[in-house]
Amino acid sequence: MRKLLVTEQIVLDVDQRLVRQLGVDEHRFRRVRFVLGTTGKMMRVEPWSIVFTDLSTGTILDVVDGRRGKAVTTWMAQRPASWKRNIEYVAMDMSAEFRKAIRDSLPEVRISVDHFHIIQRANQMINAVRRRRSHDLNDRRGKMIDPAYRYRKLLACNIEKLSNKQTDRLRDVLASDAELGVVYAIKEHVRDLLKTRDRDSFATAWEKLQASVKATSMHEAKSLFRTLTAWKTELETFCLTRLTNARSEAANLTAKNMKRIGRGYVNHENYRWRILLYTARLRPC
C-alpha cells in the first residue's frame, strides 16, 4: 500500500512537470447506454474521457471524465498559473469546444489543428459528391459496375503513391464525371496547403484553394472551405510548426488497450488510475 501511495504522488504531480506542448483528445470510456430520465423518457448516455498528453514526451498527464469543453476548462483551472505560463502550443482535433476552452484558459497559447482531420474532411467531401452524383445519374446507390464506386478508394489516395495502372484508373474515373474531377482537384489544393512551411507559401496556397472553391457551385466544396476558414489560424500554426496530435492519439490507444485488457470498466476513477499507474513507469523523471 505504501508503494501505491508513493506512486500516486508521483503520477498526480502534474503541476511539477514542465510541459510546453500539450495535446488534448477524447475517446469513449465505455459503451453507449440508455437510461431512464427524470421525465420518464429513455436517454442516450455516451461516456467519454479526455486525455491530456505532453506532446514532447508522449506522457499521459491525466484522464478526465467527460467530453465537453467544460471538462477541459475545469482541469485547466486546477493548474497553477506558473504551470500554464510554460505552455506554448496545444494540438487537438477539430473540436470547437476544446478550442474555445483552451482559448479561455490559455489566451496566449498557439493552437495547432491535426492535419489528419483536415484530409479526412476533404475525403468526406469527395465521398459526399460521389454518392450524390450516383443518385443524380443513376437514381440509385453506387454499384461495382460504376467506375466511381469500384475505384472509390483511389479517390482518397495520394496520387504520387499510385502505380501507373492505378493512376490510369483514377484518371478514367475523374474524366467520367466533371464534378468528381473538380472536388478531387480541391482536395489536392488542400494537400498543397498542408505542405507549406512558411507564411508566404501558406498565403499563396490558400488563395489557390479559395479561387478553386469560388469557381464551383457545389455545396460540398463550399462547406469544406467554410470549415477550413474557421480553422485557418490553427491550420497555419500546424504548417509553421508541424505540431500534430499523434502522441495524443497514441496515448488514447494505450487507454483503449487498458480498457480491453480489463474487459471494460464501470467506474471512471478506477479506469483513470489503471491508466496512470500503468504509464507511470514510462514517464521521464
* Shape field: globular
Number of helices: 13
Percent range for β-strand residues: 5-15%
* Sheet with the most strands, sense and barrel status: 5 strands, mixed
Unreliably modeled segments:
none
What separation lies between the terminal Cα atoms?
Answer: 22 Å
Note down, in words, how this protein is organized.
By secondary structure, this protein is an alpha/beta fold. The chain has two domains: 152 residues, Nucleotidyltransferase, domain 5, CATH 3.30.420; 124 residues, no CATH class. It is 55% helix and 13% strand. It is built from 13 helices and seven strands. A five-stranded mixed β-sheet has the order 5-4-1-6-7, with helices on both faces. α8 packs antiparallel against α9. It is globular, with a radius of gyration of 22 Å.
Brief overview, please?
With about 280 residues, the chain is of the alpha/beta class. It is built from 13 helices and 7 strands.
Summary tags:
single chain; 5-stranded mixed sheet; 285 residues; Nucleotidyltransferase, domain 5; 2 domains; 13% strand; 13 helices
